[in-house]
Amino acid sequence: MDEARARAYRAGATIARQRIEKEAPLDAEALRAVRASDIVVVRGCYDHVELVLDALQLPFVRVGAEQLGSVALRPEQLLVVNCPGQVSRDAVTNVRDFVEAGGSLFSTDWALRHLVEPAFPGTIAYNDRPTRDDVVRIEVAEADNPFLRGVIDPGEDPLWWLEGSSYPIRVLDGERVRVLVRSGELEARYGEAPVAVLFSHGRGEVFHMISHYYLQRTELREARHQMSATDYAGAKGTVVPDGVLDELNVGDVESAASSARFLANVVAEKKRSS
């Protein structure tokens, strides 16, 4: 794990948690109440959502992809399936039943083809146009959605890294599937705009995002992206521990803060609803 990237996520998570304390006290209370058994993370060899959970100081339980077919899941849990999400048929059935009963699934990238498509046919699908190693601008598609509270503020333009051979998300059911985050650049280059989507199934819900949730890099496109991360943290009214922001800039921390806040919102909403 790159040391600067780890510090960027530590800073981003710190900013997210401090803002939640100020802006959404009920969410902050829910996050403090999270126990390891509330979040189940399926290990992946490509993505590592658990590193974002670690940065947010949220506990969780790890299981292997080979265990997912037999692990006992409860409706009040959040299940995180890292890319590639290659699981057995029994696991697909187990996850479908879990969501139908009220569970929440959070999956990334190749899990679209390996898990989401077979478990929830007719909702979303891979468009068979893999991306290059690329970076795109992202925009909030549902400004009033509680999952997006504080994710992207006015005037911000965070960038989202696309792993080489990421799977663009095609929406098959436009009435059922809600696009939470989109990218015009992603659509222009690879045919589909969705970056993060949400749909309900039974009493539960499914979140899916393109590429890897733990971002490995970003780009410094504008002068604003090259500004000091210390200035960014100060503008958010937050305090980051000494040394964490050293040699980091806005481009490094902004995307990490956005992804940390989105995941924290998902966890908090799940904990509150349970």
**What overall form do the CA principal axes indicate?**
globular
- Strands in their spatial order, largest beta sheet: 2-1-3-4-12-11-10-7
- Percent of residues in helices: 25-40%
- DSSP summary: helix tally: 8
Q: What fraction strand?
A: 15-25%
The number of distinct β-strands equals 12
CATH topology label? Rossmann fold
- At CATH's second level, what is the architecture? 3-Layer(aba) Sandwich
The tally of domains stands at 1
Q: So what's the CATH class? A: Alpha Beta
Strand count, sense and barrel status of the largest sheet are: 8 strands, mixed
Based on helices, strands and strand pairing, what is the structural class?
A: alpha/beta
Q: Look at the structure and name the CATH superfamily.
A: Class I glutamine amidotransferase (GATase) domain
Using only C-alpha atoms, the radius of gyration works out to 17 Å
Mean of residue pLDDT?
Answer: 93
Poorly predicted regions are none
Structure write-up:
The chain is α/β, with parallel strands linked by helices and 274 residues long. It is 35% helix and 19% strand. It has a single domain (3-273), classed as Rossmann fold (3-Layer(aba) Sandwich), CATH 3.40.50.880. The strands form three sheets. The chain has an eight-stranded mixed β-sheet with strand order 2-1-3-4-12-11-10-7. Strands 5-9 form a two-stranded antiparallel sheet. A hairpin with a 2-residue loop joins strand 11 and strand 12. It is globular, with a radius of gyration of 17 Å. The mean pLDDT is 93.
